[in-house]
Amino acid sequence: MSSPDREDHRPWGYYQVLVDEPGYKVKTIVVYPGKRLSLQRHRHRAEHWFMAQGQAIVTLNEEEIGLQKGQAIDIPQQAWHRIQNPGKENLVFIEVQTGVYFGEDDIERAEDDYGRIA
Q1: Which of 22, 42, 91, 112 could form a disulfide with 54 if both were Cys (CB 3.0 to 4.6 A apart)?
Q2: Which string of b and e fits 67-76 if b means at least 16 CB within 10 Å?
Q3: 98 vs 107: CA distance, rounded Å
Q4: pLDDT per residue over 23-78, tens digit each?
Q5: pTM summary value
Q6: In whole angstroms, what is the distance from residue 110 CA to residue 118 CA?
Q7: What is the per-residue pLDDT for 27?
């Protein structure tokens, strides 16, 4: 099993890779209060998000879904998605990726608060 990476910081928070194996990857992701990730999709992977702390608003295609600690959601491959933290404490969730490729370049962004649309 590969060794975990250090934290990778982004404008919205940070993540840490816990496991990176052929066929799956597991991350802990922290989203700061009032922040959100880009509206994005992936060609080569699906994701499962389990909320460990805080509250979230997940956009899945055209639908907005509120989630709390202990709840989870599946993000199908090719689905437009984003997560935001409307709360006053850090949102922490576990992301399990499954598929054939997990590179950070497998991100197509439709909207981004931080100017990262190519």
Answers
A1: 91
A2: beeeeebebe
A3: 15
A4: 999 999 999 999 999 999 999 999 999 999 999 999 999 999 999 999 999 999 99
A5: 0.92
A6: 10
A7: 97
> To which residue do tokens 């990262």 refer?
116
Cα gap 118→45, rounded to integer Å? 20
Cα–Cα dist 49/95, whole Å: 5
Tokens of 4: 């975990």
Beta strands 45-53 and 72-75 are antiparallel
Q: In angstroms, rounded to a whole number, what is the distance separating the alpha carbons of residues 15 and 27?
A: 6
If phi > 0 it is left, if psi is from -120 to 50 it is alpha, else beta; for residue 110 that is alpha
